[in-house]
UniProtKB/TrEMBL annotation:
Annotated GO MF terms: DNA binding; DNA topoisomerase type I (single strand cut, ATP-independent) activity
Reactions performed catalytically: ATP-independent breakage of single-stranded DNA, followed by passage and rejoining
Known EC number: 5.6.2.1
Protein name (record): DNA topoisomerase
Record-linked Pfam families: Topoisom_bac (PF01131)
UniProt function note: Introduces a single-strand break via transesterification at a target site in duplex DNA. Releases the supercoiling and torsional tension of DNA introduced during the DNA replication and transcription by transiently cleaving and rejoining one strand of the DNA duplex. The scissile phosphodiester is attacked by the catalytic tyrosine of the enzyme, resulting in the formation of a DNA-(5'-phosphotyrosyl)-enzyme intermediate and the expulsion of a 3'-OH DNA strand.
């Protein structure tokens, strides 16, 4: 069994971006803060890896992703009965939720698009069933 991922903290975002996108920490944070300022991502500086939002609120965020041309069909499956509450990590800084997409961003390009995709796919994976 492969467990679905824990929600994203800043450190985990930096690790994933380095591993999968070959981005350094500074570049990752500059891009994430830009996406936050444009309203595409939640605040990117957080140690929290557990959502305090309701399933309804999280479901709305998944619903938002159904319009994406790449992973929208998968997000749609989650809204039709596949949704699972994200796992809970051990950290909650009580200030900010884990990093997640706040609205659909289908028209981004370049590194901004790559980082948004990493966060959005990770979020959708958090709301999925564990793999067998």
């Amino acid at each position: 069994r492969k467990w679905r991922p824990l929600p994203l903290s800043t450190v985990e975002l930096q690790k994933l971006a380095a591993r999968h996108l070959r981005m350094g920490s500074e570049q990752t944070m500059n891009l994430a803060e830009g996406l936050y300022n444009e309203g595409f991502l939640s605040y990117p500086r957080t140690e929290t890896d557990r959502f305090s939002m309701t399933d309804g609120e999280l479901g709305q965020l998944v619903q938002e992703q159904t319009g994406h041309p790449t992973w929208g069909a998968y997000a749609l499956q989650l809204t039709q009965g596949g949704y699972r509450r994200p796992r809970e990590g051990r950290n909650d800084d009580k200030a900010h939720p884990p990093i997640h997409p706040t609205k659909l961003a289908a028209a981004l390009v370049g590194d901004r698009a790559r980082l948004y995709e990493l966060v959005a796919r990770h979020f959708v994976a958090c709301c999925s069933e564990d793999a067998l």
